[in-house]
Amino acid sequence: MLKGKLLAALAAAVALSAPVLAADVDQAVLTNEARQQVKAFGGNLKKTVKKGMQAGGPTEAIHLCNTQAPGIAAEHSKGEWNVGRTSLKLRNPDNQPDEWEASVLADFDKRLAAGEDPKKMEASKLEDGQFHYMKAIPTGGLCLACHGEQLAEPVKARLAELYPEDKATGYQAGQIRGAFTLTKPVEM
What we know:
Helix content: 40-55%
Shape: globular
Strand order of the largest sheet: 1-4-3-2
Largest sheet: 4 strands, antiparallel
Order of helices and strands: HHEHEEHHE
Number of helices: 5
Radius of gyration: 21 Å
Number of domains: 1
Number of strands: 4
């Protein structure tokens, strides 16, 4: 009788701990998948911006970003992953952060102020059958032509034309420009 109760208690303890262990394993695997998605998505965006810069400078890069970035995000969102970008200072209002994303972006800024390398900043959570992942986008030299503190007049005019509510300027190299944000449904 005692042996039966002990086995039942042990089985219950194992059953209760199994989902936590599975979630931990899944989250590590999902984080690695998300990193690969960010690498591919970010690489395609950067390639598009460089193509624009070579073809006609910052104004052409802005045009390509405006017309091609949504398609690039859509292409990378095929399958289970939903891939995008967000920021606390938006250029495209369609990229508005949700509450968690805004909180993570604010945390990224605090971590940057504390000296953490922005290239290594990421955050994730597993909640309500969704895996959420964010990776900071530090402002690099290429970004400054369209997002920096001092913009050429043609750049200002193009931004005003394509993004009349633009808030995504005034950055310095190394600041957090925004983040890649990804979600994927998971079975729990």
